[in-house]
Design brief:
By secondary structure, this protein is an alpha/beta fold. It has two domains: about 200 residues, 3-Layer(aba) Sandwich (Rossmann fold), CATH 3.40.50; about 210 residues, NAD(P)-binding Rossmann-like Domain (Rossmann fold). It contains 17 helices and 14 strands. The strands form three sheets. Strands 3-2-1-4-5-6 form a six-stranded parallel sheet, sandwiched between helices. Helix 9 packs parallel to helix 12. It is elongated, with a radius of gyration of 24 Å. The structure holds uridine-5'-diphosphate-xylopyranose.
Length: about 425
């Protein structure tokens, strides 16, 4: 199969590299010349474990290439995937579809034969209809079919998620397109990944439903953590106690500082906009969005309270800034709200993140960036663990707290044990677990 992938961002680049690895011939297109130039010399625009190697192998095997020339890439493809960004539109939270519609226009102007056009970007219900209308308008004589094939991969685990998905959702309203999609995904469904064929609108909505449900699940356990703190119960045990029930499932029940990232915040907002447009309010999702927004700020206050309520002139060290480990992504990261709260209260903030500091520097110039967790601890009255990078799971706590002015750790990811901390004489706060007796 010849595949053109429009957009060499997270989803486009990972999907393109994985399709090439299945044996398809893939050309990734991006408007950004510097990104394409960098890819030509093996430099990845994002940090994603295993991606550089996967790209290298498939470029060497001539199955994967990169270009800024959409017209030539699209003209002889069997399937053209649209994997451009759909950020939140400034002001109203709707998904901004400018790039999707522009890609549709460019594709329509380039194609010369019947082709399947697949939206992989997360797009609101009905976007496929509009893409189809654009294609018909610009290229009325060519048989172009529009399919929705949302992507469920997670940052930091993207290649594994793509190659071993729980399911592949394909929204196609005609048989020829279903056949093309079956051929593209053959290596995966031979590998037992279920292929779920639905209508196009259903597929579009399924992606939002999945993300809103997961965001709600996280938010539920976060509120349960607050209640645990109030009544002296342990949220980790509650999560295990409910998660072993197969109907609930144990994943996405880790209490923490609130969800962030490029997907959950923007997709929950976009879903609410769709619900509003169709006069079908989704109050549970509304509550999720509100609770999560409030939680990020509340985490800053939690640190301040742990420090006795006044942090003026004191130093706080943050371990981890990205919205989750194994990424350099800072979008909607809880650390942004936490840092703001601490700076507003008059604290000095020192921080270290294994991958996120280049981006963080541009977003939070008033933070003192350090080259490791022990450097962060120097002179600090509290350390807060904000992101659960593996290298923060087995810190030398005696060395760390030996560098601090006061021995205090606020563990927003529940990585440590309260009893161990008490033995070391460290004042310890975590999320939703009682202090040791
Ligand atoms: C998410 C979806 O999982 C994925 O299917 C979709 O395609 C894109 O959005 P991603 O944003 O990469 O993926 O991250 P994910 O691992 O889902 O985590 C999202 C946020 O939730 C992070 O901030 C993470 O820290 C938080 N989280 C996750 C929790 O706080 N607790 C949990 O138990 C799980």
């Amino acid at each position: 199969m010849k595949i053109a992938m429009i957009g060499a961002g997270y989803v486009g680049l990972v999907s393109g590299a994985c399709f090439a690895d299945f044996g398809h011939s893939v050309i990734c297109v991006d408007l950004d010349q510097s990104k394409i130039d960098a890819l030509h010399v093996g430099k990845m625009p994002i940090f994603e474990p295993g991606l550089a190697e996967l790209v290298r192998v498939n470029v060497a095997a001539s199955r994967l290439s990169f270009t800024t020339d959409l017209a030539s890439a699209a003209s002889d493809a069997d399937a053209i995937f649209i994997a451009v960004g759909t950020p939140s539109r400034r002001g109203d939270g709707h998904a901004d579809l400018t790039y999707v519609f522009q890609a549709a226009r460019d594709i329509a102007a380039a194609v010369t034969k019947p082709t399947v056009v697949v939206t992989k970007s997360t797009v609101p219900v009905g976007t496929g209809d509009e893409v189809e209308r654009i294609l018909r308008e610009v290229a009325p004589d060519i048989d172009l079919t529009v399919v929705s094939n949302p992507e469920f991969l997670r940052e930091g685990a993207a290649i594994n998620d793509f190659k071993r998905p729980d399911r592949i959702v394909i929204g196609a309203d005609d048989e020829r397109a279903r056949g093309v999609m079956r051929d593209i995904y053959r290596p995966l469904y031979l590998n037992q990944s279920p292929l779920l064929f639905t209508s196009r609108r259903t597929a579009e909505l399924t992606k939002y439903a999945a993300n809103a449900f997961l965001a709600t699940k996280i938010t539920f356990i976060n509120e349960m953590a607050d209640l645990c703190e109030a009544v002296g119960a342990d949220v980790k045990d509650v999560a295990r106690g409910i998660g072993l029930d197969n109907r609930i499932g144990s994943k996405f029940l880790h209490a923490g500082p609130g969800y962030g990232g490029s997907c959950f915040p923007k997709d929950t907002l976009a879903l609410l906009k769709t619900a509003e447009d169709f006069e079908t309010p989704m109050r549970i999702v509304e509550a999720t969005v509100q609770v999560n927004d409030g939680r990020k700020r509340a985490m800053g206050r939690k640190i301040i309270t742990a420090m006795g309520g006044d942090v003026r002139g004191k130093t706080v060290g943050l371990l981890g800034l990205t919205f989750k480990p194994n990424t350099d992504d800072m979008r909607d990261a809880p650390s942004l709200a936490i840092v703001q709260a601490l700076l507003d209260a008059g604290a000095t903030v020192r921080a270290f993140d294994p991958e996120g500091m280049d981006v963080a520097r541009t977003m939070m110039p008033d933070v003192v960036y350090c080259d490791g967790p022990y450097a962060v601890a120097e002179g600090a009255s509290a350390i807060a663990i904000v992101t659960e990078w593996n290298e923060f799971r087995a810190l030398d706590l005696a060395r760390l707290t030996g560098l601090m002015v006061e021995k205090r750790i606020v563990d927003l990811r529940n990585l440590y044990d309260a009893d161990d901390m008490a033995k070391l004489g460290i004042e310890y706060e975590c999320v939703g677990r009682p202090a040791p007796r």
